[in-house]
Amino acid sequence: MKNLSLFFLSACILIVSEPPNCLAQLTLEPSDPAKQTDIPDFYKGTLTDIDRALSTVKKGRVAQIAVSAGGLPLYAVYYGAKEDFARQANYNSAVGARNPAYYAKKGAAAKPVIYFIGPVHGQEAEGIVGLVNLLAIAETGKDLRGKAWPELSEMFGTARVVIVPTGNPDGRRRVPYDSFVGLPEETMTKYGQGTKKDGTLWRWPQAKSLHPMRGDVGILGAYYNDAGINIMHDEFFAPMAEETKAIMRIAMEEAPDITVSLHSCSCAPFVIQNAHAPLFMKERIDAFARQLNDQYRALQLPNRGASWKLSTEADDPTFPPQNSFNLVSALHHASGTMAFTFESPHGTVEDGATYEQILDIQLVLYQEMFRYISAERLIWQ
Ligand SMILES: [Zn+2]
After folding, report:
1. How much is the mean pLDDT over the chain?
2. Superfamily assignment of 53-375 in CATH?
3. Taking Cα atoms as reference points, which of 214, 190, 365, 210 lies closest to residue 291?
């Protein structure tokens, strides 16, 4: 079953063919969320968990960056001093002048800036679990299991780190489950992409065919904020959601060297290519994706196998296009950042990941991002 899970994806923005109809026959009634008593203490994926983690921040600075459509605060946590990049132009104008240093002078002495964007899809809480544990590492050197992460601790001393624990608190609030470990993918899909008025599931990718998601809605999926906006597919030249504006504003202000948008599906973990980034950036993302996958293999965590790699085609040769300009594309073109999407397993029946594995998958991702950007920085001067 596990090997087939790639074809059963219902989550994000994956490049696969039509979702399988066979799963419709597997529809199972969700378990009672109140009976989720096996969730370990370190697995902190709720809005309450974020609030508690933010209240413990002493070494960083917590800022409210937006109010969601549903009236909830969006937060960012900043570690390390913000350097003066002597900005005199926005990014695309600087590129037009043939040198991104007009946007941000980042010489060899500048600290790398690393930007972690928590889940913009509310059911994909695995990224919250990872980032809440990352905050614990920033403050104590250890994750919530008590495991030390010396390299990640070092990151907070040698990089500027920006953490947005969740990009979509509205969606997270609407999910009745604190985890999907051991539950069928169908349950995640029901609350993730939501249902129509007749109770049928919207599913991926049809859940993107109506946007904003308003009208034929039974359960509004956690994909969306309370106004029905999927932040991954906002209108980036005129954003509809305050959450999107805040996420984009941080990128423009911080000029991050590397940025991840955290997602999940019923799958082995992997990086998704930034389909509308320039070729040189696609090659960097592919190199990073393989480095990360190799590390998962070495640690015997769920992975994509030895020969896996990303597409580095310069552009989409097909019509209709298979790949959209989405949040990570916008982040790159607004700031030059090496922005990509990451997909974690949920731990569903279909993907089989455990609580321990999901946390390790997240923290190893963050560590490899730090390793990669420390070794492979782009110098702008
Ligand atoms: Zn997603």
Report:
1. 92
2. Zn peptidases (3.40.630.10)
3. 365
Residue 265 CA, ligand 1 centroid: distance in Å: 7
Q: Is 80 exceeded by the pLDDT of residue 85?
A: yes
Q: Domain limits of the chain?
A: 53-375
Residues whose Cβ atom is located within 5 A of ion ligand 1 = 12, 121, 124, 263
Ligand 1 centroid to residue 310 C-alpha, Å: 18
CA angle 7, 8, 9 (to 5 degrees): 95
Structure tokens at 339: 């922005």
Residue 246 is predicted with a pLDDT of 98
- 3-state class (DSSP) for residue 77: strand
CA–centroid distance, 13 to ligand 1, in Å, is 7
pLDDT number for residue 26: 43
pLDDT of 7:
36
Q: How far is the centre of ligand 1, averaged over its atoms, from the C-alpha of 49 (Å)?
A: 20
> Ligand 1: distance of its center to the CA of 15 in Å?
13
Secondary structure of residue 150 in the 3-state scheme: helix
Ligand 1 center to residue 121 CA distance, Å?
5
Residue 361 has pLDDT above 70, yes or no: yes
Average pLDDT over residues 53-61: 98
